[in-house]
Design goal:
The complex is a heterodimer of chains A (282) and B (251). Chain A is of the alpha/beta class. Chain A has helices at residues 16-21, 42-53, 73-86, 115-132, 154-165, 173-183, 187-193, 228-241, 257-274, 278-281, and strands at 7-10, 29-31, 56-59, 90-94, 97-100, 103-109, 137-139, 168-172, 199-205, 208-210, 214-219, 246-249. In chain A, strand 7, helix 5 and strand 8 form a beta-alpha-beta unit. Chain B has helices spanning 4-13, 24-27, 32-50, 52-58, 60-73, 89-95, 105-120, 137-142, 161-169, 201-211, 216-226, 232-241; strands at 146-147, 152-156, 183-190, 193-198, 245-246. Classes of the chains: A alpha/beta (282), B mainly alpha (251). At the A-B interface, helix 2, strand 5 and strand 6 of A face helix 1 and helix 3 of B.
């Protein structure tokens, strides 16, 4: 099923009607399942209406796979029920944590990449995949901090998780750009090293500069169009690896649906360019 | 560094991160504020989305300031932000010294919670309005009516919470003639949309008794014991017309 996916759009409530009406080859939609883990009512009905017409991707933001605290078994069961109900084409989560002994925090938090962390996260991913009954894709998060104690390179860490658990990888190109800028590494070189054969999905999004620190710190804000530098990194990846199901994410300053479709067309043109159709992108 | 995440989380929720300890160099980085801002904004936005009528009534600045204090005192227990605040936000807000003159805030918060409970409740068929009329009197008396999963209700003693909430929710001015007495509020879901109306105390008591599994005659008597001055038939008719019951059997 995933073979039929071209470029998809993050789905916002204000675009549900547009999404149901939209007709385009390979179009799909992605949502955060957390907004739809309900017993019934319109939140499920909307999603099922979209699902009847388009492939769907569930992109979780709260499993806390990198957490020291155990996974929230009740949350995982609710997520599994939604997966059974919607039969999404893709299911993904982040290499991050959000759950701690005192509760849960709505962010994708960093951790030192130690071997102990690798073993713990591999076990968590395996547990999640067992309950969900399918492999999931793990996304590289945005980085802002220089953390002490990293023993593993991030790409090698992700690769090892995939080797141990059979999970795939979600390459977020905007996160690579943001992290490279903030931590001072070469985004192009990083993209070139990323194991293309493990990538089941690509994310593209906009970012912003920090309101206090300005250009010194980029924030993965998803509130702007995809930046030229991110398009360039995407082209670089696609030219090496070929097209993958690709998502345009937009969570803030949400523009009219037509503007998102225009960004989608840009992504489609880049993918077509790799396919040998140079004129499509010219 | 086994306590890394616990220390990181506590530093995010505190007003100022610790200046000593093994993570001081992490917390001292200006970029740490990105995580703190994201966490606090995410929690406060969730509360504002969950309690929109309360937020409108007190104004965004007051609301977000109260929400920030609540987040620091009681961060979300789990990832269900759709339910964040249901357990204590109304009481927390009501306990703030600046809320002393506004005794209805906890009731407004409760009504916002009931709206959401109605919005996300399970689907079920609605008991048709004419069904009871076709029953023989004895069958009617022993019939157990089951509230629809989406049906939510509350009686607010002494305060016109239903009127205040309904006007604020609809963006209307509260009439100056508002009677300062207790009111009930009923939420039902019609074709996916949450509807609300005021409900007499007898209606709230009747629904309570039905939810506890009492047959219709007993539930009606319970309602009349509490609210003896009201004719019961129109109350039952109001609940049936609102689609407050389901015809599906108990699970």
């Amino acid at each position: 099923m995933a073979d039929a996916l071209a470029t998809g759009l993050g789905l916002k409530p204000e675009h549900f009607d547009d999404a149901v009406r939209a007709r385009a080859d390979g179009l799909w939609f992605e949502v955060h399942p957390e907004n739809h883990l309900v017993a019934g009512g319109p939140r499920l009905a909307w999603l099922e209406a979209v699902r009847e017409r388009h492939p769907l991707s569930l992109h979780g933001v709260s499993l806390s796979l990198a957490g020291e605290a155990p996974l929230d078994a009740a949350h995982l069961r609710r997520l599994a029920a939604l997966v059974r109900r919607l039969q999404p084409a893709l299911v993904s989560e982040h290499l991050a944590w959000s759950r701690f002994a005192g509760g849960w925090l709505p962010d994708l938090l960093p951790f030192p990449r130690t071997t102990q962390a690798l073993q713990r996260i591999a076990a968590r991913i395996a547990q999640a995949q067992d309950v969900l009954g399918r492999p999931i894709a793990i996304e590289n998060p945005s980085h802002y901090l220089r953390l002490p104690g990293h023993l593993w390179d991030e790409i090698e860490f992700l690769q090892e998780l995939a080797r141990r658990t059979g999970c795939t990888l979600l390459l977020d190109v905007n996160n690579v750009h943001v992290s490279a800028h903030n931590l001072g590494f070469d985004a192009g070189e990083w993209i070139d090293r990323f194991p293309a054969e493990l990538v089941s999905e690509v994310h593209l999004a906009g970012h912003s500069t920090d309101p206090v620190l300005g250009d010194a710190l980029l924030v993965d804000s998803h509130d702007a169009p995809v930046a030229p530098a991110v398009w360039a990194l995407y082209r670089r990846f696609v030219q090496r690896a070929g097209a993958r199901p690709t998502l345009i994410e937009r969570d803030g300053n949400v523009p009219p649906f037509a503007e998102l479709l225009a960004e989608r067309a840009t992504a489609q043109a880049i993918a077509a360019c790799r396919a040998g159709d140079e004129e499509a992108f010219a | 560094m086994t306590d890394f995440q616990e220390a990181f989380a506590q530093a995010l929720l505190s007003e100022a991160a610790p200046e000593d300890g093994p993570l001081r160099d992490v917390f001292a980085q200006p970029a740490f504020a990105v995580y703190r801002n994201t966490v606090l904004k995410g929690c406060i936005d969730a509360l504002e989305a969950n309690f929109p009528t309360l937020a409108r009534l007190v104004g965004s600045d007051w609301f977000r300031s109260a929400a920030l204090a609540y987040v620091r005192a009681q961060p979300p227990r789990d990832s269900r932000l759709l339910a964040y605040g249901d357990e204590g936000f109304g009481g927390f807000v009501q306990s703030l010294p600046s809320a002393a003159e506004l005794p209805y805030l906890v009731g407004i918060a409760r009504a916002d919670s009931l709206w959401r409970a109605c919005h996300v409740a399970a689907n079920a068929s609605v008991l048709p309005t004419g069904l009871l009329a076709r029953l023989a009197p004895d069958d009617l008396a022993t019939r157990v009516l089951r509230p629809h999963p989406a049906t939510q209700w509350a009686w607010f003693d002494d305060l016109p919470v239903a009127s205040l909430w309904s006007h604020e929710r609809a963006g209307e001015a509260v009439p100056p003639t508002l009677a300062w007495c207790g009111e009930g509020l009923l939420f039902t879901r019609d074709d996916g949309a949450v509807r609300w109306q005021s409900l007499p105390r007898a209606g709230c008591a009747f629904l309570e008794a039905c939810a506890a599994g009492h047959p219709l005659a007993e539930a009606a008597q319970h309602a009349l014991d509490l609210d003896p001055d009201i004719p019961f038939a129109p109350v039952l008719q109001q609940l049936l017309c609102a689609g407050a019951f389901t015809e599906e059997p108990l699970p």
